[in-house]
Amino acid sequence: MKFEDFGRSGAPLHAWKSSSRLASLPAVSCDELVPPHARAVVLAPHPDDEILGSGGILQLLARRKRSLMLISVTNGSASHPDSTHWTSERLGIIRPQESAEALRRLGLYMNGLQWIHGGFPDNRVGDQLVDLKRFLRTYLRPTDVIFTPWRDDGHADHEAVADAALAVGREIGAAVYEVPIWAWNWASPEDPRIPWARAHKIHLDRWTQARKRHAIQAFASQLTPDPVNGRAPPLNPATLERLQQAFEVVFL
């Protein structure tokens, strides 16, 4: 599936909200996912993935004063290919700044978030999979609980990060949980490609949902049309509504 197809072929929001399959997913709490002694590590292939997939989880863990680490694998500089306005140089500066603002809106810096920048090439993470595994081994511990995008999420960088996380997690004995992000935009509630047997829901209260929505609005480069060519933004309204429900999902 091509990246530009995301958000255009998935089931509409009302289909997800009326889905008996989704409603019947077992709930899991952050206390169950991340014990008090553990550190939660969120892997973000691009700036904004940490908020889109785990913005609620991050807030809930911060309230419980869990140790938190965010690893931004790339700087997101390839989100607008061929744009004369959103050049890779501009995006490489702006997108990490947008993540910083989004994290501030979640209130995370006051909770001691450790933030690591990987510097891997956007849209080509898979070309450096060996280096990525080596990089992750530098930072990950056996007692960590690692949140990575789902291995079959539909974006090559998401899949590469998941492959590396799962491999290193097995090596060191750390727990690795997968989070669907782009899958919400090409799948349907009955899609057999989704590993529903492993899926669990983390419920988000209204305050947590509101802060996540506010944080997502920090990603202006991803939310507004290109001012030169008028091309639609990567995150369109249909995409956003599927990513801002009253829960987040993890595959255990």
TrEMBL record:
Family annotation (Pfam families): PIG-L (PF02585)
Name of the protein: N-acetylglucosaminyl deacetylase, LmbE family
PANTHER family: BLR3841 PROTEIN (PTHR12993:SF29), N-ACETYLGLUCOSAMINYL-PHOSPHATIDYLINOSITOL DE-N-ACETYLASE-RELATED (PTHR12993)
GO molecular function: hydrolase activity, acting on carbon-nitrogen (but not peptide) bonds, in linear amides
Signal sequence range: none
Coiled-coil ranges (or none): none
Organism taxonomic ancestry: Bacteria, Pseudomonadati, Pseudomonadota, Gammaproteobacteria, Pseudomonadales
Classification via InterPro entries: GlcNAc_PI_deacetylase-related, LmbE-like_dom_sf
